[in-house]
Specification:
alpha/beta; about 525 residues; six-stranded mixed beta sheet; about 45% helix; 15 helices; elongated
């Protein structure tokens, strides 16, 4: 099978596709470019050898991830950024190989409209998303940050995620794009090849968000303290807590159902530090409301990133520990190994958070609240654990101080908005330094506080009962896609091998006619 695009042109086009995917993501969020990016990337892969597919995949990956994850270097310098971009790009490049093989092997099958118009685009979509799932789950729990479905938060059909999940939305986008590539391969005059793309696009635009039921409102006072909360910020002990208390002052005489502080803003472990506990006691006494705070806490020899509900009687507080501490940020996996490679850099990371095992749910009055701490928002399982308990709303506490001046907080906000749409629940996303937002169940913004500003607001947050199926569907579609992709490639490989063997036998026997 001949390549659709010569290699000398495919390489710069793969780079352009990587750039387009970054432009489709926040900050710019030019969502149509996600389709363009996938179409061009697939076109550069058609007809490629294993080495050629690896090359164009690497070029796409290096271009995209170096732009999309530029904020990683804000924390510990260029080495972690290079390492993460390199790893993600290598996995992406390797993932281009089965796509190229699928194009090659399916082209040898007997021709038929159903196969080439429907089956091939779906298979290519499965392989694209299978690679996305791999990137989000390996190594060290994965990094599901750059997901195709997440590019559509600003688009006209993010509501589809409430039915099929983010993984399902990624699959639909990849399949539409693969259908366009099939049309190009079969000839622009063969209009039936456009049918799957057209039908899927029409379906995307007409499907409404899954309805959840109105259950009243919950008054939340949320505070963005804008204190010195970065890991390497120059601050004196107590300065961060004082900044958060000062920012909260305007809300203390106003009635709320809950006060919310962002990740780490309590500064000290209030269960061990009496002075910090006394400060929180005063806050909840003056406000008459419980406080959802967060701090690093210690239990025995283990340290956790902990959210807690602080009340006037906190003898048995509700707590939730972050489920997925960030590798090389909140702990160093295989520290003994990496200390041999970069001892000075690894030595800067002194904290070693233990993964939490308690449920990401707290209850205030009669209202159950789902939680996610910082990057936990990108992990489907954390959100699903709250949705399984039919929480009335979600609260996401985060600290973006280490990534000031980058797109990181906007990329994270895109996840928060998609989680609201995907579950049909409101989201209160509170950051130490911005951007903080209160997001309605349909993804619209109810309140916001910009970057590097002090903010304290009260928002009547809509409550919902019932949960959209999208967050539950993901737990089945992800493994199903991986199994289907592996099974299809193995099946095609066996068929191709048998075909080659059969043809070899036919050519060896001059008395038999070779089947075409």
């Amino acid at each position: 099978m001949r390549p659709l695009i010569t290699l000398w042109l495919a390489v710069p086009l793969a780079a352009a596709a990587g750039l387009a995917m970054d432009l489709a993501s926040p900050e710019l969020s030019w969502w149509p470019l996600a389709f363009v990016s996938v179409i061009v990337a697939l076109a550069t892969t058609v007809g490629r050898s294993i080495g050629g597919a690896l090359l164009v995949g690497l070029v796409f990956g290096v271009t995209f991830y170096s732009l999309h994850l530029d904020w990683v270097g804000e924390f510990l310098g260029p080495v972690p950024r290079i390492a993460l971009v390199g790893l993600q790009s290598m996995i992406f490049g390797i993932g281009a190989i089965p796509i190229a093989l699928a194009y090659k092997w399916t082209s040898r099958l007997r021709r038929g409209a159903v196969l080439h118009v429907i089956v091939v685009p779906v298979l290519i979509g499965v392989l694209w998303v299978g690679r996305e799932i791999t990137l989000g789950s390996w190594p060290y729990g994965g990094f599901p940050w750059a997901r195709l479905g997440m590019t559509q938060v600003e688009g006209p059909f993010p509501e589809v995620a409430s039915w099929v999940g983010v993984t399902g939305l990624s699959l639909v986008i990849a399949t539409i794009s693969a259908s366009v590539v099939q049309w190009l391969r079969m000839g622009l005059r063969f209009l039936p090849a456009t049918a799957p793309a057209v039908l899927l696009l029409v379906g995307l635009t007409v499907i409404p968000q899954f309805p959840t039921t109105d259950a009243g409102a919950f008054r939340v006072g949320w505070v963005q303290g804008n204190g010195p909360s970065g890991y390497f910020d120059d601050r004196s002990p107590g300065e961060l807590l004082s900044a958060q208390v000062d920012a909260t002052e305007p809300l203390l005489d106003r009635k709320t159902d809950l006060l919310v502080w962002p990740e780490g803003s309590a500064e000290f472990d209030p269960f061990r530090d009496e002075r910090a506990g006394a400060v929180l006691d005063e806050i909840v006494t003056r406000s008459g409301s419980p406080l959802l705070g967060n701090a690093a806490t210690t239990r025995g020899a283990e340290t956790f990133n902990t959210s807690f509900v602080w009340t006037q009687d906190s003898l048995d507080p509700q707590i939730h520990d972050k489920v997925n501490p960030v590798p090389f940020g909140e702990y160093v996996p295989d520290r003994w190994f990496y200390e041999q490679l970069a001892p000075d850099l690894v030595g800067l990371i002194q904290r070693e958070y233990t993964p939490g095992t308690n449920a990401p749910v707290v209850t205030v009055g009669k209202t159950a609240i789902g939680l996610a701490i910082c990057f936990d928002v990108i992990f489907d399982g954390v959100i699903r654990a709250g949705a399984e308990r039919d929480v009335g709303l979600f609260v996401f506490q985060t600290n973006n101080a280490d990534f000031r001046g980058s797109d990181e907080n906007l990329q994270q906000l895109a996840f928060a908005r998609m989680r609201a749409i995907q579950t049909g629940k409101s989201v209160v996303n509170v950051s130490t330094v911005g951007t903080s937002q209160v997001i309605a169940p349909d993804g619209s913004i109810l309140a916001t506080a910009g970057v590097d500003e002090v903010a304290a607001e009260i928002t009547d947050v809509p409550l919902r009962t019932g949960t959209a199926p999208g967050i539950f569907v993901d737990q089945w579609t992800a493994p199903g896609i991986v199994i289907l992709g592996i099974g299809a490639i193995v099946g095609l490989a066996i068929h191709s091998r048998r075909r080659s063997t059969r043809l070899a036998h036919l050519y060896d026997d001059p008395t038999r006619k070779v089947e075409q």
